[in-house]
Specification:
5 domains; alpha+beta; four-stranded antiparallel beta sheet; single chain
């Protein structure tokens, strides 16, 4: 029997736009557009006998229209009730997939607002909304109550339930019970390191390991080990300078002072050999400074590239003079044969400024 073309026909809120693929039994199906803008595919016999009149919005609309005849249609309780119906029955609603799409329904009694209001009563206060005790069950009198946003957040399926001193509760509730002594991220980190829940919750932030405040490292004294940048400590140098210093640099000895240590070492040398005023001593002091003092602008092209002063020269100016001798004449500076090599006897000589024995990409040694 030929199938009658229904394209262009209108059935209640549905307008037929095209033929769809027939079902497994050969029954004709049609693509339709609802007045609300949604599209559905339904059988032709359902359109003709009135079983399909809309995408589902007609049922919701009729329920809401039927319940606007009383004086409560503009109350917060009414808006909660209407929103509950929409997300459970209208596929076009944004949250339908989380409610009606998961099979959550509104009990038949609550299709009437007055019955809903009689069971739930007025909201206790501003900000309250409807909450289901069991998020997998329907909206019904025995499963619903008025709750604050905070109470609802503690009743989602995404919450982590823990046992704190034998009492089950959400992780957030446990944190609030102990006065929020640690951040959520800090708490998760402690639990990941094997701390018990009670210890992780009850140990104040920054108190999980022994404090190093007051401890000395070379010329640094730690004055605060709980600053915002967790990779550093606030320190005071013996000379009085205050600075945030990388913890790893202090522990390894890479940072021993604010830079004053080299200055003091140089001054100490002034009194031991009587040559502190000489160009040779100034060249030796400058060589050591640019290889070890991070505060100097030249450090990045010397010490910052791994260039070092050999231990023999670093420990003694006299050893330096014994190996390279005095400057031949005015205008000579300390040079390196290999500019990628360290300052050591086999790699250094006195040369005129701007001239080297081997081509150099770096000025002045």
């Amino acid at each position: 029997m030929p199938i009658k073309d229904m394209t262009g026909q209108r059935f209640s809120r549905l307008s037929v736009v095209s033929r769809a693929e027939s079902d497994a039994n050969g029954n004709a199906r049609w693509n339709c557009v609802c007045d609300c803008g949604a599209t559905i595919t339904t059988h032709g016999f359902n359109l003709r006998n009135g079983a399909s009149k809309s995408c589902g919005c007609l049922t919701t609309g009729q329920l809401i229209q039927r319940n606007t005849t009383h004086m409560l249609c503009k109350t917060p309780e009414y808006r909660v009730w209407a929103g509950m119906l929409q997300r459970c029955t209208n596929p076009k609603t944004i949250k339908f997939s989380l409610y009606g799409g998961k099979g959550i329904k509104v009990c038949e009694r609550w299709n009437d607002f007055e019955s809903f209001y009689a069971d739930m009563g007025p909201r206790p206060g501003r900000g309250y909304s409807i909450e289901r005790a069991d998020g997998n069950k329907d909206y019904a009198p025995g499963n619903c109550r008025w709750a604050t946003p905070k109470e609802q957040n503690n009743n989602t399926t995404q919450n982590r339930i823990v046992s704190y001193h034998g009492v089950p509760m959400t992780l957030q509730q446990a944190m609030e019970k102990t006065g929020m002594m640690v951040t959520r991220g800090g708490l998760k980190g402690r639990l990941a390191r094997g701390w018990t829940l009670e210890r992780a919750l009850e140990t104040p932030a920054g108190k999980g390991k022994p404090s190093v405040v007051g401890k000395r490292f070379w010329r640094w004294t730690v004055i605060d080990d709980n600053i915002p940048d967790r990779s550093k400590w606030a320190c005071r140098c013996d000379c009085g300078t205050l600075r945030d210093v990388a913890r790893s640099n202090i522990r390894s000895g890479m940072s021993q002072s604010c830079g004053c240590l080299i200055v003091d070492t140089t001054r100490e040398s002034f009194t031991t050999h009587g040559k502190s005023h000489t160009p040779e001593f100034q060249a030796w002091a400058a060589m050591r400074a640019r290889c070890s003092n991070e505060n100097l602008s030249d450090y990045r092209i010397y010490g910052g590239r791994g260039i070092k002063v050999c231990e023999r020269w670093d420990s003694s100016f006299q050893n330096f003079i014994d190996d390279v001798g005095m400057r031949p004449r005015v205008g000579y500076v300390l040079k390196r044969l290999n500019t990628d090599g360290d300052y050591e006897p086999a790699n250094c000589f006195w040369g005129l400024r701007g001239l080297t024995r081997v081509s150099s990409s770096l000025p002045g040694g």
